[in-house]
Amino acid sequence: MDTIENTLTSKPKYLDLLGKEQALKLLHVCADIESGKYDKNEIHTFKLTGIKHPIYLRTIRADMQSFINTFIDTYLDKKPYLADAQFVIDAGANIGFTAILFANWWPQCKIISIEPDKENYELTLKNTSLYPNITVLNGGLWNKEVKLKIEAGQEDGFVVREVNSNQTQIKSENLTLGISIDQLLKKYNISQIDFLKMNIEGSEKEIFAENYKTWLPQTKAMLIELHDGKNAGCSKAVFSTVNQFDFAVAETAPYGILFVKEKVYRKWYADWYREEIYKPNIDKNRFPEFYLDKENT
Q: To 10 degrees, what angle do helices 13-34 and 2-10 make?
């Protein structure tokens, strides 16, 4: 109990987000999981401040970690230079928390969430059922439409590999479909991707290795998590391809690299710097002109 009370004191976001009763419930579930409890059939419901509809999670470590990463120790905040979005791809949906976050940030946005694991996919459907702007697909993002095999992994991070002609003895629960970005753009009649979140446990290597020349120039921003430990050469493939186009690295974080179209990001940065730094703090006798105004004209 002392540990739970200490957590509430050190991380007030639990109380802000959940209130005292729900926060205590969540942290007790977390304590049970830390003590070894694992029960996919035990599903808990929580109502979060600022989130339109309730969320659901199972009594397993992966779901609790997803909750913490999305809502407590957040890996992504809404950026002022990404104020609006019309079309978002959420690749690696897990149990749907990121899609829920996007739907609350951008209520008018069309969101496509993709998850290869069937059990995670089904909980994503449950979590997003009250959001008409979220469509959930059972599959893995890939560079073409193929059969994929789900390899051993953790429940919040399954690895997929392309099935070759020699592989015949694959359990049905370990088979899924590869879904390409070009396929999504055609199916939903979309000409621009406003935000692409990609946490796909190494498949980013294949996606940035080929069949990217149609969709990548039409992408405004991307959050890409890299997994060189799971698939050798991920970082090299991503940066080599992204560097062919006009993206800036807007932010680096433990859970990914945020790439934004350079013109979009640098315009915001120049405006922010002028108003927040240059005007109130810089010696105008020494620096009478703001250098970014000249560079952005």
A: 150
